[in-house]
Amino acid sequence: MLSERRLQVLRAIVQDYVGTEEPVGSKALTERHNLGVSPATVRNDMAALEDEGFIAQPHTSAGRIPTDKGYRLFVDKLAGVKPMTPPERRAIQNFLDGAVDLDDVVARTVRLLAQLTRQVAVVQYPSLTRSTVRHVELLSLAPARVMLVLITDTGRVEQRMIDCPAPFGETALADLRARLNSRVAGRRFSDVPRLVEDLAEAFDLEDRGTVSTVLSTLLETLVEENEERLMIGGTANLTRFGHDFPLTIRPVLEALEEQVVLLKLLGEAGDSGMTVRIGHENAYEGLNSTSVVSVGYGSGGEAVAKLGVVGPTRMDYPGTMGAVRAVARYVGQILAES
User: Fold this and answer.
1) What is the Cα–Cα distance from 195 to 226, expressed in whole angstroms?
2) Which residues of 165-203 are buried (b: 16+ CB within 10 A; e: fewer)?
3) Residue 305 near residue 125, CB atoms below 8 Å
4) Which of 106, 128, 141, 267 shows its CA 20 to 30 Å from the CA of 67?
5) Who contacts 233 (Cβ-Cβ below 8 Å, separation ≥6)?
């Protein structure tokens, strides 16, 4: 375990390097921070931190920079989450409150996160499998053609066209709509198959084929395999950090184009806690020079998706964590009220 004083030296090194982009020397540390010890003691502490792999000397400069291990200790032990100021919180609320639908909420969230953190923002759409049915609408388009509209508690809307095996009248359609919603509205997606399994039997024999077709389409929508969607924004922000990427920014940009990679980076949607992955903790090699800060968001205290930012390891962790957490909280409120 590091002594409290060496932890303070590490914190000072991280703060100065993030703020100045320059390797940090012992003289600068003693001048800028009230460490209460001599420059010689600070030099000894820095030597010990380097021996243990928390800081490194990037080249022949006298200064040191944090390593992935140093940033990890900083985040775990030394960095509080920086709270947003009242004006910042009002700005977040005002910006997100103007959203008109789920797509607009996600688009605004991406723009807002990218602006607040000056990093790349990634927002996952609410997962269908973690959602609750709000309403199922059935609309007649032709005697044997119906549109099914599934609306979730998170505001997500899925539409499907259904070609029925036989003409289906408005009265029968209204009856099906009413019976269907009485069974599934407000229920978890995972419960729906059990709730509708005998519904077709409540209809006349000539209508059961169409009812079964509608129910099959509904169930297919609920278990859709490729439903995970993401929106990404602020990629141009990476160009401000060219020197933070050892060789080239290209591997980072290529990784950001891979949706599967980003979903794995954000983590499991059901985990609502804050996650910070630093440098080589990211399994994808192209992102070994980046850090990912993510958190779950949702309504009713349960996470239905993740959002977060990707940036260089030389990141303002307290500020970024605070912004990500605050935005997630407001998005969750909007979903709860929608």
Assistant:
1) 24
2) eeebeeebbeebbeebbebbeeeebeebeeebeebbeeb
3) yes
4) 267
5) 110, 111, 113, 114, 120, 121
Rounded to the nearest 10 degrees, the angle between the axes of helix 102-117 and helix 86-97 is 150
Q: What percent of the chain is modeled with pLDDT above 90? A: 33
Question: How many C-beta atoms lie closer than 10 Å to residue 71's C-beta?
Answer: 26
- How does pLDDT run across 23-78, given as a tens digit for each residue? 888 888 888 888 888 888 888 988 999 999 999 988 766 788 999 999 999 998 87
- Other CB atoms within a 10 A radius of the CB of residue 121 amount to 28
Residue 319: per-residue pLDDT: 92
Full DSSP string of 100-129: -SHHHHHHHHHHHHHHHHSSEEEEEPPPGG
Inter-residue contact 70 to 79 (CB < 8 Å): no
Read off the pTM: 0.78
